[in-house]
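Just wondering, does anyone understand these tokens?
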Amino acid sequence: MPGIDIRICVNGEWRDLTVKPYERLVDSLRERFGLTGTKVGCGEGECGACTVTIEGKAVLSCLTLAVQANGKQIRTIEGMRRGDELHPIQKAFVEEGAVQCGFCTPGMIMAADAMLEQDPDPSEDKVRRTLANNLCRCTGYDKPVKAILEAARNLRASG
């Protein structure tokens, strides 16, 4: 089957690649670019482990074909860092002890990033609704919620 040429911007860098029509974005990110922070959990859009942002919106990369990302900007957990420094959301997850096994953490952070772009001062209820799309068996969600609210405060303060 012939490939399809696409151009995507991954973590600020434009890349050209040829993909199969049925190739999932999660597979392109992990296998072609080595961005393994984006996890493959259920592969059915139920767990949120594969969450990335496309044009600032949280999407499930296991349900997104690579061709659907053509011409768009994608950010993965690896693109969150600012040089050698963790992004404020990542930092808050560490400081609040919101990382346990870590499998769901990248998806939660990416979902939080998209939410905070739209609403820099979310209520606890809104944070919980945002995280409802991310399956976590370790944290009980309390620490991730606290981390996201703390990150929101820090981001607003740094302006």
